[in-house]
Write a structure and sequence with these properties.
Elements: E1 10-19, E2 24-29, E3 36-39, E4 43-48, E5 51-52, E6 60-61, E7 64-69, E8 73-83, H1 88-104
Antiparallel strand pairs: 1-2, 1-8, 3-4, 4-7, 5-6
């Protein structure tokens, strides 16, 4: 009997906040993991939950909250992106490649 592993489609919400100064703040939220965004009258409240680092899955990023005041914004771009988790083999290969690059740039 062959074991079939179903890969669940995962989605993240991506926002680009363009400030009146010209600075862009890109933010990616994983709503399913517990991140949240709340649009209020004068501000936007963003909360991130504790999660593994993108560059090192053994390191946990702390929970974080951000407030963006709308009066400083020129515009907001929003998109939903689908992604698939890397297999353990892909993660291991990526880590080896990342570490190799890190050692060659010093």
């Amino acid at each position: 009997m062959e074991l079939v592993v179903r890969e669940e489609k995962r989605y993240v919400e991506c926002y680009d906040f363009l400030f009146t100064t010209g600075m862009v703040l890109p933010i990616t939220l994983d709503l399913k993991a517990g991140d949240s965004i709340e649009f209020k009258d004068k501000e936007i409240l963003i909360s991130f939950v504790v999660k593994p680092s993108i560059t090192d899955p053994d390191v946990m990023l702390p929970a974080e909250e951000q407030t963006i005041f709308k009066k400083h914004l020129a515009c907001i771009q929003h998109r939903t992106q689908e992604f698939q988790e890397a297999t353990p083999e892909q993660k291991q290969e990526w880590t080896k490649l990342f570490n190799k690059q890190e050692n060659t740039t010093h």
